[in-house]
Design goal:
The chain has 182 residues and is an all-alpha fold. It has eight helices and two strands, in the order βααβαααααα. 70% of the residues lie in helices and 2% in strands. The protein is globular.
Length: 182
């Protein structure tokens, strides 16, 4: 089980809403040094705030970085640019002490460039595809596009919920059990 304290959280300058929510949940009005399990923060405030709390726990930097890389690996199949995958490799090596700060920065910059390039590639592909539609196909294409967009939105919502559940389960496994898993 991983613990922090309210004082450690407070010293990290948490958002006012999350801080107030956590204090209400704990029935407290101010910070203290009583050990506070991350599981309690997860149950009270949710995964985002529990993840944020890892920032005030520098002794868990390696585990937090590996957790972030694990999350990204879950969607690696969607990454089409090798720079993104290479950045994951470097991030994992860095967390394990096998990559330098300079390598991490270079990988981050390359992944950011890949992310900037992706919308342009998608827009160009969409424009090329749209160029094949003729005026007589436009009404049918619009109806099909609307139906497809609705189906995709439902699929994405389900996928996001499943991914979030998997992330929370992995977080619990790593930070909220008596025997953390590697």
């Amino acid at each position: 089980m991983t613990y922090t304290t309210l004082n450690a959280i407070r010293n990290g300058n948490p958002c006012a809403d999350g801080w107030a929510k956590l204090l209400r949940h704990l029935g407290k009005t101010e910070a203290d040094d009583e050990p506070l399990p991350l599981r309690e923060i997860l149950d009270s405030n949710g995964l985002d705030d529990a993840l944020w709390c890892l920032r005030v726990m520098p002794h868990l930097d390696r585990e937090a970085r590996l957790f972030a890389a694990w999350c990204a690996r879950q969607v690696q199949h969607l990454m089409t640019d090798p720079r993104s995958i290479a950045a994951l490799d470097v991030a994992e090596r860095y967390a394990n002490g096998k990559a330098t700060d300079a390598e991490l920065i270079e990988a981050r910059d390359a992944a950011n460039a890949a992310a900037r390039d992706a919308p342009n590639a998608a827009a160009n592909a969409a424009a090329r595809a749209a160029g094949w539609d003729t005026a007589r196909d436009a009404p049918n294409a619009a109806a099909n596009a609307a139906a497809n967009a609705t189906a995709r939105a439902a699929e994405w919502a389900a996928a996001r919920a499943a991914a979030r559940a998997a992330q929370e389960a992995r977080f619990v496994e790593l930070f909220c059990t008596e025997e953390p898993k590697p």
